[in-house]
Amino acid sequence: MILGLTGGYCSGKSSAAQILAADGWQVINVDKLGHLALQEKIDEVAALLGPEVKSGDGLPERKTIGKMVFKNPALMRQYEAIVHPHMNSLLEKAIRTSKADVCIDAAILYRLPAVNECNAVLEIRAPLLQRIRRAKQRDGTGLFSALARIHSQSRLWKMGNSLKVPRLVLHNGGNAEALEKCLKKLLSKLVN
Predict the structure, then answer these.
(1) DSSP-derived secondary structure for the chain
(2) I need a labelling partner for 124 at 20 to 30 A (CA). Which of 31, 54, 57, 79 fits?
């Protein structure tokens, strides 16, 4: 089985991924694959953005890259055209070589070709105030920064409405135990 797992900033997606991993799922973290793809494509990215995006040891300066591309949509598209195909290739390989049920853990799941391979998608949601509180506790993020990050992801959730595979929504308004209980209940419906 291939399960897509997505959710907005501080909704509890990472906690759900940990629960799935503890239950024997192979969780493929697309964010980590994106970092690997960037590292492997850093020379092409540097050709696009300039040499300052590489550290002295040749590794990507992700904060520098982020500052450049997030404020320029055209540049972001060019950057993604370099990194995303490689990231998608790494994801496909990880799915193909898995010997267990797979969970694709990706905030940008709805933008990935692999979403069409999913048997179902689980979208984690949480109340706005709780997400802001989690952002402050976990990341030290202030109110306006948390709201900006939450807002920047809003277009992704609209993409989920056109999904052709079953989409389950888990409302994560409680603690870790409540999340685990709800998650296992939803998964039992998928497996049966």
Answers:
(1) -EEEEEE-TTSSHHHHHHHHHHTT-EEEEHHHHHHHHHHHTHHHHHHHH-GGGB-TTS-B-HHHHHHHHTT-HHHHHHHHHHHHHHHHHHHHHHHHH-SS-EEEE-TTGGGSGGGGG-SEEEEEE--HHHHHHHHHHHH---HHHHHHHHHHTHHHHHHGGG-SS-EEEEE--S-HHHHHHHHHHHHHHHH-
(2) 79
Residue spans of the domains in the chain: they are 1-25+101-192, 31-99
CATH match of 31-99 with 3.40.50.720: no
Same topology between domain 1-25+101-192 and domain 31-99: yes
Average pLDDT of the residues in 53-78: 92
Per-residue confidence band for 191, with pLDDT thresholds at 50, 70 and 90: low
pLDDT at 6: 95
Query: What's the CATH architecture for 1-25+101-192?
Result: 3-Layer(aba) Sandwich (3.40)
d(CA 21, CA 27): 6
Q: Which residues pair with 190 in a beta bridge?
A: none
Integer-rounded Cα radius of gyration of the chain: 17
